[in-house]
Amino acid sequence: MAFLFNRGRSRSPAEIVRSSKELLSRIHESPNTPKVEEELAKQLSQMKVIVQGTQEVNTSPDQVHALVQAAIHEDLLYDLSQSIHLLPFEARKDTQTIFSHILRFRPTSYANDKDPPVISYLVHHRPEIIVELCRGYSHGQSAMPCGVILREALKFDVITAIVLYDQSGPGEPAVRLSELKPSLVQKGDGVFWNFFDWVDKSNFEVSADAFTTFREILTRHKSLVTAYLATNFDLFFGRFNGTLVQSDSYVTKRQSIKLLGEILLDRANYNVMMAYVESGENLKLCMKLLRDDRKMVQYEGFHVFKVFVANPNKSVAVQRILINNRDRLLRFLPKFLEDRTDDDQFTDEKSFLVRQIELLPKEPVERARPTRESQSGINPTAMA
């Protein structure tokens, strides 16, 4: 076996890359050609040995560096990102491994505080690769390998920025890092907005992986996402509430409500939270979740509902809804999920909300919205 690997290693990385590119072109022209698929699988297997090694063969930084340079020169990463769904199963797995290692690779002399060379290449010269990896969720075969590669890339905020701010359509150039316009309100037709459908309308495996990536986009790089949500607030939460929170899929619905709570209760998103809980429509949706037939949906909905009630600077619209429903809420909350007897924090929070509802005025009172978190009296960390 080692003999076979050594034969593969006798070819230069540049030759393997060129052969792979040619074979990928042939697969696009004539899909489901077994001989071409088999030969391409061999080339990808050799690349995997270069970047990962085996028990018998150690990796060589010089060989990996040569492979990375050749892949960039031949634009192989773009071809692979477009073609993963056409590859056989083992070839898809090898592509995932190759991509992940290349994304992390730093030459020996490269400073550790800088992004890896391929990350810089992607965001400045070939962001289409990231967009194509996202579009891998359109095909069941490529969803999971593309998801693994994307989550490796999304560890870097510049990659997340490309996903959030790209507005290109199929066949169009993607946005470069230098071209981002964070203050421009989006129309909802870029690649990021496709995640709502990938999560809600795909089969279970694709949906679950897409949601994992979606959550990674929205929670890892806080300052970037906070600014994005502030600029695209109405569009984002309209889509989030309408598509995900009200999804027909139990799993999507429950996970999305939980993610909504995480977003709102994250200290970095304080201004986003305050804008969300000013809306009477958002409160109505949340109260509807409390009456859902499924207990875990009720439970996750409760963690969003409590933000509305605990806010000492409620909008008139929110006050009016709570005041009009005061008696019903005071009857409902003490019996709400009363079988959670071992959850002391939940019991305490219910008691706190009952007290806050009891203290509501008879009529809504106009209140100025505070400008600083310290004025609000809400501690998102303590409520999480």
TrEMBL record:
Start and end residues of each stretch annotated as Disordered: 364-384
Any matching Pfam family: Mo25
MF terms in GO: protein serine/threonine kinase activator activity
One BP term from GO: intracellular signal transduction
Gene Ontology CC terms: cytoplasm
Stretches with biased composition (Polar residues): 373-384
Membership in a protein family: Belongs to the Mo25 family.
Protein name as it appears in the record: Conidiophore development protein hymA
